Amino acid sequence: MLDGSGLAARLSERRAAGAERDALLRAAVEGIEASSKHYDWVGVYLLEGGELRLHNYIGEETEHTRIAVGHGVCGTAVAENRDINVPDVRALDNYIACSAHTRSEIVVLIRDPETGTVHGQLDLDSDREAAFTDEDERELKIVAGWLGGLF
Ligand code: SME
């Protein structure tokens, strides 16, 4: 189970020791991925130049390194300014498949802590249906909230 506060504390220590944003975004992905065997793909997309660009990830290689706002689960989360938890991706019309094995997906937006401006998102896929619980979402929001302070 992901401990968002614990991961945020470790990231804070690394930041205090001089780690920069790219390294911290990588460390966040590593920390999240290591916390659950049900997290089969974990990545960060950043909103740059009006589109989502894949910053770093752990999991099956993907060709979806750029996603337009409004497309797929990732782009819809930005367009609708909300986190999205999809229990069964096969039920979606606008799903962009990274892996044929994926059954559920969650996107949690990374926001500026003061303005709420969206800077990117955490994107997780699982090969299990309905893998992401309210607790997963709550802990991921803590990590995303911490990452929002890096922009
Ligand atoms: N499934 C996402 C695309 C990103 S991959 O999962 C890594 C979507 O529908 O936006």
Secondary-structure element order, N to C: HHEEEHEEEH
Q: Compounds present?
A: methionine sulfoxide
Principal-axis shape equals globular
Biggest beta sheet attributes: 6 strands, antiparallel
Please, how many helices? 4
Number of strands: 6
| Poorly predicted tracts of residues | none
Chain-averaged pLDDT: 97
N-to-C terminal Cα separation, in Å? 27 Å
The percent range for helix content is: 25-40%
Taking strands numbered 1, 2, ... along the chain, how are they ordered across the largest sheet?
3-2-1-6-5-4
Helix-strand category: alpha+beta
Strand content: 25-35%
Radius of gyration: 14 Å
3D structure, described in words:
The chain has 151 residues and is of the alpha+beta class. 32% of the residues lie in helices and 26% in strands. The protein has 4 helices and 6 strands. The chain has helices at residues 4-16, 21-33, 72-79, 134-148; strands spanning 41-48, 51-58, 66-68, 84-86, 104-111, 118-126. A 6-stranded antiparallel beta sheet has the order 3-2-1-6-5-4, sandwiched between helices. Strand 5 (104-111) and strand 6 form a beta hairpin. Helix 1 runs antiparallel to helix 2 (21-33) and helix 1 packs parallel to helix 4 (134-148). The longest helix has 15 residues, at 134-148. It starts with a helix and ends with a helix. The model has no long low-confidence stretch (mean pLDDT 97).
